[in-house]
Amino acid sequence: EEERLRKQSLDVDRREKQLTMKTARQTPNFPPIRLLCIQPVVHHDIAGDIPLDRQTYIKACYGTYYGTALLLIANLVMIIVNASSCGSDKLAHGDMGNFNKHIILAVAYLIGAVAAFFVWYHPIYSACGTGSSITYVMAFIGIFVAFAFAVLQAVGPEGYGGAGFLYATLTADRCGSSNFLMILPVAILWTCLAIVMFAYGMHLIKYYKEDQASLNDAREQLRAQVR
Prior knowledge:
By secondary structure, this protein is mainly alpha-helical. It is 79% helix and 0% strand. The protein contains nine helices and no strands. The protein has helices spanning 2-25, 46-49, 55-86, 88-92, 96-108, 112-130, 133-155, 165-175, 177-225. The longest helix is centred in the C-terminal third of the chain and has 49 residues, at 177-225.
């Protein structure tokens, strides 16, 4: 009986892994349009892959992903416009190296418009769809990275590529209040993104507990059947 119970428990684990593999084998359909000859690389079907009670959450995450991409663009645009209207020499305040580093990083962060999908959105999507513990771990790591990045951008220290509060304050000192007001909305949006990512993490913990409870119940039922 103990041997049978062990096999049944292994079968539960195997089915969990099969769900993950099944999702991975589905036909890639995202991104939905070809960009620069890039073919679809992942499968994405909220209605088909995600349980009904979690679809609103995933749709919110999906919208936030696009919002993050737009915010990264707005971040760069505001930094460039601010530098143009204030003047690079005045804004750099004698430290052109730090000034250039700030702009270069803001440009480099545009890769996040793509990276955010794979770093935090798709792991959340996979975790909610499969219930796999491994995908949950990846999702939590991704959310932490996104949260930390949003906090860094909201703070906005000079030389780190963010149009945050410190950068806005620095701009006000060197260029005037009008430039401060130009940067402020982006800093507020970065703060909002950090809060949203924290909320997503808390919500995902609830789903993780639900999936773990369901898995434990299934194992208990298997044990009961062999008693």
